[in-house]
Structure to design on (719 residues):
């Protein structure tokens, strides 16, 4: 009897991640950030995150949480341990999504209202540059070598490749309607851009000099789900590039795509209106924000199965995780 | 030969990063026919001078932003004329060499102008007239519709009512021909979706001015009397396209019931309070440009010119028939802040679009409603479907 208990305890130990961690979820409607323990999947706390918090990320050292407070027209900054608010960053109007460079110095922010990408220095808290892009900029991706920022514009329907050296657009690639998100692979040789209304994900090969070539458009099909509801938004790629996870919005599913063959392998049923995705740092789990069911779904990355859901605030939008 | 070159170019574009290889300067026009009409019941509905034109200005701005990355420019002429001068105004537009024309006019004028435009090979977008015939047996090969039809409006309302299980209707309609046409669409919608019209009443338009001091006193006495002695019903369906009485209905009924249709819960293409699906940024851009809230005619004009922009961007054509063929093809799609893409029906040139239901302040719901299924697109549950349409101009 005793042995049996010990054995199961050992199994639990063996499968437990090496580090404890936590996830921060921005709740667009309740104006809060929910903190979830990624070991126990219990909600640790919920704190004020600014008005209409959407895009959310952490500094590379894991100490600072950045939140696009869209209705405040600033980026709010919080301590990831104490949740105390730190001085805000200027963002330009209506910040929605952003990306931070690996050094943590520069933040690139999409300003949906002004057809601009704003570059903000996180140390001096000043605006370094404003780059004019297409109508309704939204998605922001960065090449792993930090030489390129890719912005997607929702009405112009392009991916704009901005050089981080001179803040000039060097390439524009036309994609399908309402591009929402851009995600490079970890080796920087490939880029995925989701088109929400077009219902596709454009796959590009990236040359050594950063030039993109469209190689495929991924399409989706789920029996019993109207094609109109297959609206790709968030995209995440595993470190080795072998699996691509794509949130399909009101289809309430995350598509699993083979990173090599670019075939859709499976659809994982998650909560309602799934938009953004975030891996835990060890990539054991993928978290999804489900805006219409007010929860996040935890997906076991290796098994490609949803294992549980956690209630968070109202209309969760974005998610980011750290090791504790 | 030119067609082959275009096709090759279009397919090449799909797989290339965009380089401004050759320039296209797109010139279009909006022709708005201004009719003498009575003042609206509510001052909120006074027509702004730039109605429709403001949508064109925003479309030019949006198209030019995209065009700046492609080497394309867009310029849209704005022309207004009284009905008797509309033909001359169109001739001037055609004389300028413009072959892409958005027309804001009543169906009768629209058809005459469209036929004149056809002689010069021009493509016309109907951004105002909701009449069924111009989408049916009187359709034209050079006429696309970016505004919705009476049928789409009525079907949008009917689906919502049926979803709510409000299936016993009293239909109250006006006496002017457009009111009668809208009432007809509601009768058809009731049959289509299984609602029952338990009684119909016509509220006669006796003319006269709309604006009288303390006019509400008489309305408050007359309307309830007009609405008494009805059989049991769930809702009032109002068909008042000429907008002379329905707005008084909701609080002047005999039996308290919700009003839908021309008052109460109304179908609308867009309104200034709509924010979902990224519309906030669209509203902000519009308001920054025009210093007022958007109205449906601005939106239908914007869609027409954005559709032209998509054809130019993706198919590299500003040729009228090239634009037409591209936008009715399955290649075309446009994000229009309504929750799903808009496309065109290839059997009658009608925009396939969701329809908002609006209480005067908020988007209450958007049709098609859940559960109304269709083999092609749920959007085709509203308006004239392929088997119903008598249009042969697109065959």
């Amino acid at each position: 009897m005793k042995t049996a208990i010990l054995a199961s305890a050992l199994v639990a130990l063996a499968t437990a991640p090496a580090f404890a961690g936590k996830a921060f979820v921005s709740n667009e409607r309740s104006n809060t950030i929910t903190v979830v323990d990624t070991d126990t999947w219990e909600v640790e706390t919920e704190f004020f995150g600014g008005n209409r918090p959407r895009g959310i990320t952490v500094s590379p050292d894991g100490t600072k949480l950045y939140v696009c407070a869209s209705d405040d027209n600033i980026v709010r900054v919080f301590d990831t341990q104490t949740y105390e608010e730190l001085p805000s960053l200027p963002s330009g109007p209506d910040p929605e999504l952003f990306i931070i460079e690996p050094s943590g110095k520069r933040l690139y922010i999409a300003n949906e209202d002004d057809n601009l990408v704003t570059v903000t220095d996180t140390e001096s808290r000043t605006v370094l540059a404003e780059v004019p892009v297409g109508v309704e900029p939204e998605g922001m991706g960065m090449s792993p070598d930090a030489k390129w920022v890719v912005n997607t514009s929702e009405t112009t329907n392009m991916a704009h490749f901005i050089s981080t050296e001179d803040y000039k657009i060097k390439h524009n690639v036309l994609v399908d309607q309402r591009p929402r998100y851009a995600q490079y692979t970890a080796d920087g040789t490939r880029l995925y851009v989701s088109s929400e209304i077009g219902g596709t994900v454009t796959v590009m090969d990236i040359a050594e000099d950063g030039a993109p070539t469209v190689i495929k458009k991924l399409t989706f099909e789920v029996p019993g789900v109207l094609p109109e509801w297959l609206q790709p938004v968030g995209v995440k790629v595993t470190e080795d590039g072998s699996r691509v996870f794509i949130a399909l919005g009101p289809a309430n599913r995350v598509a699993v795509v083979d990173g090599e063959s670019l075939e859709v392998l499976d659809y994982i049923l998650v909560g309602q209106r799934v938009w953004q995705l975030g891996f835990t740092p060890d990539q054991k789990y993928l978290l999804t924000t489900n805006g219409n069911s007010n929860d996040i779904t935890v997906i076991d990355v290796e098994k490609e199965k949803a294992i549980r859901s956690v209630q968070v605030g109202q209309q969760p939008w974005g998610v980011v995780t750290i090791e504790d | 030969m030119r067609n082959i070159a275009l096709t090759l170019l279009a397919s090449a574009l799909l797989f290339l990063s965009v380089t401004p290889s050759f320039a296209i300067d797109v010139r279009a026009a909006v022709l708005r026919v201004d009719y003498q009409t009575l003042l609206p019941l509510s001052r909120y509905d006074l027509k702004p001078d730039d109605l429709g034109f403001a949508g064109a200005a925003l479309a030019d701005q949006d198209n030019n932003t995209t065009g700046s990355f492609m080497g394309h420019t867009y310029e849209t002429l704005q022309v207004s004329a009284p009905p008797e001068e509309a033909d001359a105004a169109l001739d001037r537009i055609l004389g300028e060499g413009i072959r892409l024309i958005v027309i804001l006019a009543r169906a009768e004028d629209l058809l005459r102008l469209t036929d004149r435009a056809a002689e010069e090979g021009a493509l016309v977008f109907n951004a105002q007239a909701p009449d069924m015939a111009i989408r049916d047996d009187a359709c034209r090969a050079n006429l696309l519709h970016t505004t919705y039809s009476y049928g789409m409006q009525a079907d949008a309302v009917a689906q919502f009512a049926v979803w709510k299980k409000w299936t016993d209707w009293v239909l109250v309609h006006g006496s002017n021909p457009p009111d009668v046409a809208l009432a007809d669409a509601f009768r058809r919608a009731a049959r289509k979706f299984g609602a029952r019209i338990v009684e119909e009443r016509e509220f006669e338009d006796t003319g006269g001015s709309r604006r009288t001091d303390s006019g509400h006193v008489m309305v408050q006495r007359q309307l309830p009397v007009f609405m008494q002695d009805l059989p049991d019903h769930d809702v009032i369906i109002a068909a008042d396209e000429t907008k002379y009485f329905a707005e008084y209905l909701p609080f002047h009924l005999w039996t308290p019931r919700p009003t839908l249709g021309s008052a109460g819960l109304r179908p609308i293409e867009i309104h200034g309070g709509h924010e979902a699906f990224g519309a906030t940024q669209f509203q902000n851009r519009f308001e920054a440009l025009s210093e007022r809230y958007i109205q449906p005619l601005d939106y239908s004009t914007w869609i027409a010119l954005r559709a032209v922009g998509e054809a130019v961007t993706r198919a590299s054509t500003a040729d009228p028939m090239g634009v037409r063929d591209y936008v009715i093809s399955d290649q075309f799609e446009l994000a229009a802040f309504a929750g799903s893409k808009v496309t065109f029906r290839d059997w009658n040139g009608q925009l396939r679009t969701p329809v908002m239901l609006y209480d005067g302040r908020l988007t209450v719901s958007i049709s098609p409603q859940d559960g109304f299924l269709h083999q092609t697109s749920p959007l085709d549950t509203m308006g004239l479907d392929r088997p119903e349409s008598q249009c042969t101009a697109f065959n």
User: Anything to note?
Assistant: Confidence is low (pLDDT under 50) at residues 1-18 of chain A. The longest helix of chain A spans residues 2-15. Residues 21-323 of chain A form a domain with the Methylamine Dehydrogenase; Chain H fold (CATH 2.130.10.10).
